[in-house]
Design a protein that fits this description.
The complex is a heterotrimer of chains A (about 220), B (about 200) and C (about 230). Chain A is built from 9 helices and no strands. Chain A is mainly α and about 220 residues long. Chain B has 6 helices and 9 strands. Classes of the chains: A mainly alpha (about 220), B alpha/beta (about 200), C mainly alpha (about 230). At the B-C interface, loops of B face loops of C.
Chain lengths: ~220, ~200, ~230
């Protein structure tokens, strides 16, 4: 059983390695969106640093959401998804492996790039640290919950926008706690409460989301 | 032993078939026949558990499949219309991944033997993207040489194959059935498979 | 049955509105404008109750593989969305004379907005999947996931609100509840409830007709020669 989990993880990572453009586009999108706001709002550091937590988190959410289409759609189209459904393994485990691969490929790079962009927004170092911690704790939840949306909209017309509509409301707690963590540090308070809530939410998603995703996959492949 | 009772399938608005029942014993082959669109592929997908029938049950060795899906899945192998191959992986990598997922023998040697048996040994290290339709189909079918599953559910396995490959595949299915395996096949072609028992199931609206 | 519910809805609505607008006393702080609370609060209650009922029907449909439950969920969704929209619009009208702006980001209104998104998502998902059985099950799963998330979302929005304002901008600062006001609101809630049942039953009828259109009893009804 563990062998199957590792197989799926390695397979997805290998596929991402061979199609590096997919990964790069997510990252570039994050970069572009974060660069749009100063252009729209004005370059004063004080303003930028006050909007930074919200803007950076929204950019991370949107980038994460765009990358969801690569989670199941390709496997659905070429038939490897149904083979996974037929494998004599708990589907929940295979789903968790795919989501982990997705997070490593699409979530982790955002966590790494974020502090650099945070510098563009004149965030002080302790806020940058809070940003990285918050993203590290929150992006897994984005991948996990996003997987539910991706699974529900397989093979449906206009699935990209539909996934966004389904998934964004569910992302709101992550946004609130994540941006709140950075803002708290900016105002001289501790981000502990926010980070703990983020961690709790991610853990809850880890336990529940793969179950919902597996159920959604079975419904979609029917 | 596989047994299906009163399977009915409705897709969207259309009733595809109703009250289909059959029993398949070890060493038996079941041919599913019918016009295009009569629901052959749907029946096979229902038998795999990918699709839920409107009514009816499926039992394996007397036990209802619904109560032990993982056990049932370990006994079956399905090759459908889609090949289930990743374009960016090589033929060998694809075969290895699917073998590991189903816990068959998956070491490099067995994999290359399987690919060689179906005549595409030299494609082993090519990405599937560059193979022809026929070659891709053969990579998908190569699993039949690695598997230990007793029940094979094959949807048009002979389509897109040249006559040599058809012969090879027939031989493999013969071997499987002779050792007590079972096969459910849809095909438009005349194939010669010697089985202990052969049934024909016709699906007509 | 449907006409009965429709009449009940009309009767309750008339009584409720009468109590709300004529009998209940003028509020000390907020003047006559507060009366919109008689529509706003029951509408908000309904929007939340309908979501829960919808999710319950959906769960039943999923677990028991029952078509009727799933159709009930599908029938309730638009009504739930309408009540959410009503709550938002009346909330906005209430806010204008109070706070001078058309929209206030308080915890309750913001949560209602998110609830609207959840309804819209459910309706959008169901309408974009062609096969009705698949649409039912996908929608049911989404409704359940939403139902689990609603408390979390509400909690996080309240958290966000207290963090950022700490001020008294809140729709929750309702006038002190005089008994007549409470009765008025309950009557309106009942009216909305009857309306919901009437409309949902009508809609389920349409859904059933549409789905079973190829079966014999429908053809008989419409007089098509078989």
């Amino acid at each position: 059983m563990k062998d199957a989990w590792v197989t799926v993880l390695k397979r997805d990572l290998l596929l991402a390695l061979r199609r590096r453009s997919d990964v790069a586009t997510t990252l570039f999108f994050f970069l572009i969106v974060s660069s749009l706001f100063p252009l729209g709002i004005g370059p004063e550091p004080a303003v930028l640093s006050s909007i930074a937590p919200g803007v950076l988190w929204v950019a991370a959410l949107l980038a994460g959401m765009l990358s969801l289409s690569r989670l199941f759609a390709a496997d659905f189209a070429d038939g490897s998804l149904e083979q996974m459904l037929l494998a004599p393994q708990p589907l929940v485990l295979l789903v968790a492996a795919k989501v982990l691969a997705h997070w490593i490929v699409c979530g982790l790079p955002v966590v790494v790039l974020a502090p650099i962009i945070g510098l563009q927004y004149a965030l002080p170092n302790d806020a940058l640290l809070a940003l990285v911690e918050a993203l590290l704790l929150g992006t897994p939840a984005l991948s996990l919950i996003g997987a539910i949306g991706a699974a529900l909209t397989l093979g449906v017309r206009g699935s990209g926008l539909l996934t966004a509509l389904l998934v964004l409301p569910l992302y709101i707690p992550v946004l609130i706690f994540g941006a709140g963590a950075v803002a708290a540090v900016q105002h001289g308070m501790s981000a502990q409460a926010h980070l703990s809530l983020l961690a709790a939410f991610s853990l809850l998603s880890l336990v529940l989301a793969p179950l919902a995703t597996a159920a959604a996959l079975r419904i979609s492949v029917d | 032993m596989l047994s299906a009772q009163s399977l009915t399938c409705i897709r969207g608005d259309r009733l595809l078939f109703r009250d289909v029942s059959f029993t398949l014993e070890a060493g038996g082959v079941l041919y599913v026949l019918g016009e295009n669109g009569s629901g052959k592929s749907s029946l096979l997908r229902i038998l795999c558990g990918l699709m839920t029938p409107e009514t009816g049950t499926i039992s394996w060795s007397g036990e209802q499949v619904k109560s032990n899906t993982e056990g049932y899945r370990s006994k079956l192998l399905y090759v459908g219309h889609l090949n289930g191959l990743k374009d960016d992986l090589t033929a060998a990598e694809n075969l290895q991944t699917s073998a590991r997922l189903s816990s068959y023998k998956s070491d490099a040697e067995n994999v290359s033997v399987a690919l060689g048996a179906i005549g595409i040994g030299r494609c082993a290290n090519l990405p599937v993207r560059v193979l022809s339709q026929g070659q891709k189909r053969r990579v998908a079918l190569a699993r039949l040489w690695l598997t230990e599953s007793p029940l094979w559910i094959l949807d048009e396995p002979f389509a897109a194959l040249d006559s040599a490959s058809i012969g090879v595949l027939q031989g493999r299915i013969n071997q499987h059935v002779a050792k007590g395996g079972m096969a459910i096949i849809t095909t438009h072609q005349d194939v010669a498979i010697n089985a202990q028992s052969t049934q024909h199931l016709r699906l007509d609206a | 049955m449907i006409p009965w519910f429709a009449w009940m809805a009309a009767v309750f609505a008339m009584i409720g509105l009468y109590v709300g607008f004529a009998i209940a006393p003028t509020d000390f702080q907020q003047g006559e404008a507060y009366r919109i609370i008689f529509v706003h609060v029951p509408a908000a209650w309904m929007s939340m109750i309908i979501y829960i009922v919808m999710a319950a029907w959906a769960a039943l449909g999923l677990v028991l593989n029952a078509r009727l439950s799933a159709m009930m969920a599908q029938a309730l969704a638009p009504t739930g969305a309408i009540f959410t929209l009503l709550a938002l619009v009346t909330g906005s009208f209430w806010g204008k004379p109070m706070w001078g702006t058309w929209w206030v980001w308080d915890a309750r209104l913001t949560s209602e907005l998110i609830l609207l998104f959840l309804y819209l998502g459910f309706i959008a998902l169901q309408s974009s999947i062609d096969d009705p059985r698949k649409a039912d099950r996908a929608g049911a799963l989404l409704a359940l996931v939403g139902a689990v998330n609603v408390p979390i979302i509400y909690f996080s929005v309240k958290w966000w609100n207290t963090l950022h304002q700490g001020s008294t901008i809140s729709m929750g600062a309702a006038p002190k509840m005089v008994t007549t006001m409470l009765i008025g609101m309950l009557l309106m809630a009942l009216a909305f409830w009857m309306y919901t049942i009437a409309v949902a039953l009508m809609r389920v009828r349409c859904i059933m007709l549409e789905r079973e259109r190829s079966s014999a009893w429908v053809k008989e009804l419409s007089g098509v020669a078989s």
